[in-house]
Design brief:
Elements lengths: L14 H15 L5 E6 L15 E7 L2 H8 L5 E5 L12 E7 L8 H11 E12 L16 H9 L2 E11 L1 H18 L12 H19 L15 E4 L8 E9 L8
Parallel strand pairs: 1-2, 1-4, 2-3, 4-5
Antiparallel strand pairs: 5-8, 6-7, 6-8
Length: about 260
C-alpha cells in the first residue's frame, strides 16, 4: 500500500503512530471473548489479526477493495469484504464484538457510522471505538470530524444505553516524541501563514499532503523521533484522566438501542 497519511504503514509511518494503533487493538483484544468479531476499517489486516483467537470468527471490512484483498492474504483466520462503514452489508445483531479503530474521524457524518455499529452489534454485544483526541491530533486532511471525550460519549449514547470513554495515554518518552514531531509540524505550517491550504479545493490539499508527507516522515526519522525511534505500544496505557495531550480515546459501548416500531 502507498503511504498517504490515511492509514498507518509499517516502515513508513512514525513508530509512535504505529504504537498508538497497536495499543488500541491491544486494549480491544483484552476485552473480547468468543463469538463473531467485526473490525470495521481493517485496512490490510495488520492490527485486525491481533483480535484472532480460538472460538472467534474474525471478519474485517474496509472501503478499499485492494486493502481487503491484501488483508485476506494474511491467513485463513480473517475473512474480509469491501464495504462502506456507514452502510454495512450484514444483518442486524450479527456480531458479538465490533471494533472501529481510527475510522470515525474520517466520516463527515459520524452518526451514520455509529448507527451501523449499533445495528450490527448483538443485544448483548460490545462496540469499541478508538479515535484521536481532538486537542492532541496533528493536522490531517483525512481527519474531517474530531472528538473530545464528552462529545464522543454524547454521540454514542444516542445509540447505546451504556457508554464509557477512556484515554489512551503515553508515557514521558511517547509524549516527548509527539512533542518533537508536533513542533516540527508547526514549523512547516509557518510556510503557509495565510492558510492557503484550506482555501484550495480539498482534493488539491489532499494531493499535496500525500506527496509532502513521506518526505516529512523521512526528515523526522531519527533515534529520537519518527521512524526508528523504537517507541512501541508498551509506552501507552489506559487512563480516566484525559487531558489535552492525551493522544487517543477508547470508547466502550454496550446495550445498543433499537428503533421502536409503532404498533399495528
Amino acid at each position: 500500500m502507498r503511504l498517504t497519511g490515511e492509514r498507518p504503514i509499517q516502515g513508513a509511518t512514525p513508530d509512535s503512530l504505529l504504537a498508538l494503533h497497536e495499543a488500541g487493538y491491544r486494549e480491544v483484544a483484552a476485552r473480547i471473548g468468543p463469538g463473531r468479531v467485526l473490525d470495521v476499517g481493517c485496512g490490510t489486516g495488520d492490527e485486525t489479526l491481533r483480535l484472532a483467537a480460538p472460538g472467534r470468527l474474525l471478519v474485517g471490512v474496509d472501503y478499499d477493495a485492494d486493502a481487503t484483498r491484501a488483508a485476506a492474504r494474511r491467513g485463513a483466520s480473517l475473512r474480509t469484504a469491501a464495504m462502506d462503514g456507514a452502510r454495512l452489508g450484514f444483518a442486524g445483531g450479527s456480531f458479538r464484538w465490533v471494533c472501529s479503530s481510527h475510522l470515525i474521524e474520517h466520516f463527515t457524518m459520524p452518526e451514520a457510522h455509529v448507527a451501523e455499529l449499533a445495528r450490527v452489534c448483538a443485544d448483548d454485544g460490545t462496540v469499541f471505538v478508538v479515535t484521536p483526541n481532538r486537542p492532541a491530533d496533528f493536522e490531517n486532511p483525512f481527519h474531517v470530524y474530531l472528538f473530545e471525550a464528552p462529545h464522543l460519549q454524547s454521540l454514542l449514547r444516542c445509540f447505546f444505553a451504556d457508554v464509557e470513554v477512556w484515554g489512551i495515554e503515553g508515557d514521558d518518552a511517547f509524549q516527548a516524541d509527539f512533542a518533537t514531531r508536533r513542533a516540527a509540524g508547526r514549523r512547516l505550517l509557518r510556510l503557509d501563514p495565510f492558510g492557503l491550504r484550506h482555501r484550495v479545493p480539498r482534493r488539491v490539499y489532499v494531493w499535496g499532503y500525500e506527496r509532502v508527507l513521506p518526505v516529512v516522515y523521512r526528515l523526522l526519522g531519527s533515534d529520537r523521533s519518527g521512524i526508528g525511534s523504537g517507541i512501541d505500544a508498551s509506552h501507552l496505557f489506559l487512563t480516566r484522566d484525559i487531558v489535552a495531550t492525551t493522544p487517543a480515546l477508547l470508547a466502550v459501548a454496550r446495550r445498543p438501542r433499537r428503533p421502536v416500531r409503532p404498533a399495528r
